[in-house]
Design brief:
The longest helix has 46 residues, at 2-47. The protein has one helix and four strands. The protein has two domains: 1-47; 58-96, no CATH class. The chain has 99 residues and is α+β, with helices and mostly antiparallel strands. It binds zinc ion.
Length: 99
């Protein structure tokens, strides 16, 4: 009887070690994923994303432009030709206060 009980306890210990190992591996994978996302976001902030997901054009303070939903960069939009043109650039709210 005592022998069976001890064997059972040992099995429980072994299975809990396996679970700990699984949790540890999952945490490591999660950490790697978070780091990759952070790196991706940093690159997006510096360079803009690989393929911009542009919003519909809208006019604000005499400018018509579209804004990327992913990285926040904007591109000018020509209402006459209905074309997006020019380089993507970060919106600078500071220069509206000057003049
Ligand atoms: Zn973008």
């Amino acid at each position: 009887m005592a022998q069976d009980e001890q064997t059972g306890r040992l099995e429980i210990m072994q299975s809990s070690i396996t679970i700990n190992e699984q949790v540890f591996r999952r945490q490591q994978a999660e950490r790697t994923r978070v780091l990759n996302n952070a790196a991706q976001r940093l690159v997006q902030r510096l360079l803009g994303c690989w393929q911009h997901d542009l919003s519909r054009p809208f006019t604000h303070q005499g400018r018509t432009y579209r804004v990327c939903m992913n990285c926040g960069l904007s591109r000018d939009f020509n209402l006459q030709t209905w074309e997006t043109h020019g380089a993507s650039y970060a919106l600078a709210p500071s220069h509206t206060s000057s003049n």
